[in-house]
UniProtKB/TrEMBL annotation:
<protein>
    <recommendedName>
        <fullName>Menaquinol:cytochrome c reductase cytochrome c subunit</fullName>
    </recommendedName>
</protein>
<feature type="transmembrane region" description="Helical">
    <location>
        <begin position="46"/>
        <end position="63"/>
    </location>
</feature>
<dbReference type="GO" id="GO:0005506">
    <property type="term" value="F:iron ion binding"/>
</dbReference>
<dbReference type="InterPro" id="IPR005798">
    <property type="entry name" value="Cyt_b/b6_C"/>
</dbReference>
<dbReference type="GO" id="GO:0016020">
    <property type="term" value="C:membrane"/>
</dbReference>
<feature type="transmembrane region" description="Helical">
    <location>
        <begin position="136"/>
        <end position="154"/>
    </location>
</feature>
<dbReference type="GO" id="GO:0009055">
    <property type="term" value="F:electron transfer activity"/>
</dbReference>
<dbReference type="InterPro" id="IPR012049">
    <property type="entry name" value="MenaQ_cyt_c_Rdtase_cyt_b/c-su"/>
</dbReference>
<keyword id="KW-0812">Transmembrane</keyword>
<dbReference type="InterPro" id="IPR036150">
    <property type="entry name" value="Cyt_b/b6_C_sf"/>
</dbReference>
<keyword id="KW-1133">Transmembrane helix</keyword>
<feature type="domain" description="Cytochrome c">
    <location>
        <begin position="178"/>
        <end position="253"/>
    </location>
</feature>
<dbReference type="InterPro" id="IPR036909">
    <property type="entry name" value="Cyt_c-like_dom_sf"/>
</dbReference>
<comment type="similarity">
    <text>Belongs to the cytochrome b family.</text>
</comment>
<dbReference type="InterPro" id="IPR009056">
    <property type="entry name" value="Cyt_c-like_dom"/>
</dbReference>
<feature type="binding site" description="axial binding residue">
    <location>
        <position position="196"/>
    </location>
    <ligand>
        <name>heme c</name>
    </ligand>
</feature>
<dbReference type="InterPro" id="IPR051811">
    <property type="entry name" value="Cytochrome_c550/c551-like"/>
</dbReference>
Amino acid sequence: MHRGKGMKFVGDSRVPAERKPNIPKDYSEFPGKTEAFWPNFLLKEWLVGAVFLIGYLCLTVAHPSPLERVADPTDTGYIPLPDWYFLFLYQLLKYTYAAGPYTVIGAFIMPGLAFGALLLAPFIDRGPERKPSKRPVAVGMMLLAVAATIFLTWESVATHDWEAAAEQGKIKAEAEIDKESEGYKIFTEQTCVSCHGDNLAGGAAGPSLVDTGLSPEEVAKIAKEGQGGMPAGIFKGTDEELKVLSEFVSSVTAK
């Protein structure tokens, strides 16, 4: 018998010469280590999901959303504040070359370049290595993005006027205002609504004029001479208009 007669060889002796069909194992031979997808596995997933859902609903009931007063489009002094996960973009728009005439740079170009770089990172660094130390480009871009986001978020929180924000968001008593009255017309003509709002509920730029407890004479004096953050000379009307306005403001009471 010649050497190798009737035998089959391949280049690597560890590879069988005859390929066998790839038939999945019958996991029934491993009792206790497998289970049916329905209903066993799926039922457990549903139970875990239900526990988290009930817990989330309990937190929602215990800590409801901190709603503010009804939005007033005439309140130009209102200081808006986005949700916490957008604070870094909000802070970015406060810088010189990302705000004002450069808003497009801060709102579109810079965030677009940053997120675009993160999206391109897997295509730029296509090496087979998985260790962070072996992937300096991808890791460096990610660390830079995380550091910038954390810094801008912290800067936004540290520089925001939280006391003024809490004051401007308070739900205040509403008043029944006759917007057809002569006093209200003078109120709008003198641009009082820009600080005190169209419902006289006030805002960040001016206090509420509802239930002030001031007499018409006191209101007229403040309108002419100013008080607090309100400078003198704001009112530009006649004495007759001032009298009508002061009587109107003094008479405004909550419902």
